[in-house]
Amino acid sequence: MNTAQFISKSSSNLVEKASFTWQTPSNIALVKYWGKSNPQIPKNASISFTLNNCHTITTIDFEKKEKTATVDFDLFFEGKQKDAFKPKIAEFFKRIQEYCPYIFEYKMTINSENSFPHSSGIASSASGLSAIAMCLMSLESELNTDLSEGEINKKASFLARLGSGSASRSVEGPLVVWGNHPEIDGSSDLYGVQFPYKVHSVFENYQDAILLVDKGEKQVSSTIGHNLMHNHPYAENRFTQANDNLSKISKILQNGDIKAFVNLVESEALTLHAMMLTSNPYFILMKPNTLEIINKIWEYREENNSNICFTLDAGANVHVLYPESEKKTVNNFIEKELAKYCQKNQYIYDSVGFGAKQI
Ligand code: DP6
User: Fold this and answer.
1) Which of 65, 133, 224, 255 lies in the 20 to 30 Å Cα band around 330?
2) Can you tell me whether residue 12 is helix, strand or coil?
């Protein structure tokens, strides 16, 4: 695999001081990534909608110092020093040091905040890691001024992937594919690419209401869940099915067959959770209210000839997906019928977004 292209060219003109701020989005997978090999190589291709409102804003202050053997950084989350998050970021820096050797020559102060409520159960690793990757790429483009925007985004996604797989899909938008797939031109296991074909207008400005069913810590992290796909009795079939679903959704996104979209997206969500139910050790991340909501969505769809559907990530929260044309009626349904199944009646209205922004 050609990873050499991502090793930064050594530079003699390291700037003394720099500071960059990036806002990067969360994303919601339609075809799920679940299962990987080292180093962060997915077992199947996945595709996600980039979100608009759920994002992380991160500033990194870089200060030049003597080169050291370890990476020197402080981490603040919502204004407070957050040492609990440091090991994940330290591991990230370890994985990327080969590609960004300049990180040994700076003291980094990282300040991060999320737009979504703290511990909402919304995974912040995708937006969090992609924000750090974008800040690093801003520094790198000062060191190497030849980098084009395309190259910057590609390497940012490559780096973000090494922190968290799904973070590779949080640089661009509105639809990103990660994982090598024969029917997606330019796709790669190493980084995410924008879905390369023209998308039907029915999927423009698609809506995602995130229903916060359970805001607690997950009992099983995604990383452990991915590992349980090794020796999983259904793993190989699942990886084949996911790649087949990616071929199908590629056509659906182009031809606008929304009924087929609904069917595929819900099947993907339930299959992801079926993999958890059939792992050993087995685990359940859905809560009773997750199922209540799913049943209500099915009833509503039937009664109103609606195109509403749901998806789930690795948790109990429900992402309700619907076309912009149904925004008013579905929002009304959410407020009247679904909010009561959410913790403290909390939900977040979001829609499809366009990726990272420097601020
Ligand atoms: C269920 O990207 O969080 O959300 O690579 O170990 O950090 P790591 O895992 P992560 O897994 C996300 C899994 C998922 C499906 C998806 O986003 O495709």
Assistant:
1) 255
2) coil
Residue 344 backbone zone (phi > 0: left; psi -120 to 50: alpha; other: beta): left
Using CA atoms in the order 212, 218, 224, 230, what is the torsion angle rounded to 10 degrees? -60
Between CA 125 and CA 167 the distance in angstroms is 7
With a Cβ cut-off of 6 Å, ligand 1 is lined by 29, 32-34, 40, 46, 123, 125, 164-166, 222-223, 226, 272, 313-314
Which amino acid belongs to residue 278? T
Q: Which two tokens stand for residue 155?
A: 């390497």
From atom 12 of ligand 1, which residue's Cα is the shortest distance away?
166
Amino acid letter at 237?
N
Note if the bond before 196 is cis, omega within 30 degrees.
no
Torsion of CA 327, 292, 35, 239, to 10 degrees: -80
Q: pTM here?
A: 0.96
User: In testing the pocket of ligand 1, which one of 43, 85, 158, 166 has its CB within 8 Å of the most ligand atoms?
Assistant: 166
- Chain mean position to CA 78: 20
**Is 88 in contact with 124 (CB distance < 8 Å)?**
no
Write out pLDDT tens, residues 173-231: 999 999 999 999 999 999 999 999 999 999 999 999 999 998 776 678 888 999 999 99
Model pLDDT for residues 244-278, shown as the tens digit of each residue: 999 999 999 999 999 999 999 999 999 999 999 99
Residue scoring higher pLDDT (120 or 71): 71
> What span, in angstroms and rounded, lies between the C-alpha atoms of 302 and 232?
35
β partners of residue 318: 211, 312
On the question of pLDDT at 160 being above 70, the answer is: yes
Q: Residue ranges of the alpha helices (H) in 212-333?
A: 222-227, 235-255, 258-277, 288-304, 327-333
What percent of the chain is modeled with pLDDT above 70? Answer: 97
CB 57 within 8 A of CB 22: yes
Distance CA 46, CA 218 (A): 22
Mean pLDDT to the nearest integer, 16-37: 97
The share of the chain scoring above pLDDT 90, in percent, equals 87
Distance 29 CA to ligand 1 centre (A): 9
